[in-house]
Give the backbone structure.
Amino acid sequence: MKQMLFVFNPRSGKEQIRGSLLRILDIFTKDGYDIHVHVTQSQGDASRIVKEGEGMDLILCSGGDGTLNETICGMLALKDQPPLGYIPAGSTNDFAVSLQIPKDMERAALNVVNGAPFAVDVGG
C-alpha cells in the first residue's frame, strides 16, 4: 500500500477544508493510499512533521501559502523527496493560482491522483 502524509491547516481560509475533508480522504483512500494525517497546531508544525516523513510515497499539503511554504521547507530536509501534492485552502493562494491548481478542493485532490507530476523551482 502507498504511504501518504497529509498535512493540513484547519484554520486556513476561514476553515474551508471542513466541508471537503471526508471527500478528499476518500479520493486518496480509493487510490490505494494509507493516509497519515497531521493537523497543524502552530507555526512551524508543518515543517517539523514533514521532516519526520521519510519513506512516504506522497506528501499532501492543504492550507494557504504559509502552510505550503512550511511543508516545502520540511521536504528540503528529506534525503529522498517524494512528490508534493497541494490542495489550496487559504485566502489568496498565490502559488496555486500561478500554477492553475483548481480552487475547488476535490478537483485539486483528483488532479493530484490523476495528474502528471512536474518540477517546480523552490529557489534556494
